[in-house]
Design goal:
magnesium; Enolase-phosphatase E1; six-stranded parallel sheet; Transcription Termination Factor Rho, Rna-binding Domain, Chain A, Domain 1; methionine biosynthesis; binds the ligand CSCCC(=O)C(=O)COP(=O)(O)O; 13% strand; 8 strands; binds magnesium ion; alpha/beta
């Protein structure tokens, strides 16, 4: 692999286990979000000025006619792991309370923490590109459990991107947008994700990319045209 000074990282299935997102973050969200719906009146006033109303009003109007209907819709989005940007925005708001109250702490893979420290010492730049909202990304990296302490690793991350900012993670132009934003050539960057479509898209943008294998990931080694890694130690 040639020289690189820029690393773009996915989150779920790459730096943390998919089980953390599915068994910690999502259940926490499902338990708490109904209390947010209690704050607003239904049918939702899509021109209302209450902050929570404005967020919920981004969901399709056919689902915001009643609290019950919207609750069902949101539960279905989570159950199917739909990367809906309004859902991701709502999740970030709910998770913030969980992080701040100490109810959520993040287990990043040890090789990821070691790599972040190493890349930081080497002067390399790390960026995050996740379906999770930028708010949720920053919360995750600021509440990392490491040995017996909670570490804030946001000082190891130079920038954050999500699909609302640069576009779909499975379109190569999204990676071109990121490269343009950070003023980097594709040859100086690497991208790591558990999602083969994302890795294919970033590869098409000229970025050396790797499919990340972690326990529970659904990816299979069946695409010989892609490179695979199961840890960050040799990157
Ligand atoms: C930022 S923590 C929550 C992650 C999340 O909601 C998600 O959908 C992660 O998707 P990714 O693109 O990082 O695999
Ligand atoms: Mg992922």
């Amino acid at each position: 692999m040639g020289f690189y000074d820029t690393i773009i990282l996915d989150i779920e299935g790459t730096v943390c286990s998919i089980f953390f997102v599915q068994n910690v973050l999502f259940p926490y969200f499902l338990d708490k979000f109904p209390f947010l719906l209690e704050q607003v009146e239904f049918p939702l006033d899509h021109k209302g000025n209450v902050a929570m109303t404005q967020i919920l009003a981004k969901f399709p109007e056919r689902y915001t006619k009643s609290k019950e209907c919207l609750t069902t819709y949101i539960n279905e989005l989570v159950a199917n792991d739909i990367k809906d940007p309004t859902l991701k925005e709502l999740q970030g708001i709910v998770w913030q309370a969980g992080y701040e109250e100490g109810e959520i702490v993040v287990n990043l893979y040890d090789d990821v923490i070691e790599a972040l420290d190493r890349w930081n010492k080497e002067g390399k730049s790390v960026y995050i590109y996740s379906s999770g909202s930028i708010k949720a990304q920053k919360l995750l990296f600021s509440h990392v459990k490491f040995k017996n302490e909670i570490r804030d690793l946001t000082n190891h991350v130079k920038g954050y991107y999500d699909p609302t900012v640069v576009g779909s993670k499975i379109e190569s132009k999204s990676y071109e947008h990121i490269l343009n934003d950070i003023n980097k050539d594709p040859e100086s960057a690497i991208f790591l994700s558990d999602n083969m479509k994302e890795v294919t898209a970033s590869t098409q943008a000229g970025i050396k990319s790797f499919v990340v294998i972690r326990p529970g990931n659904t990816v299979r080694y069946h695409n010989p045209s892609l490179d695979f890694v199961d840890c960050f130690d040799n990157l």
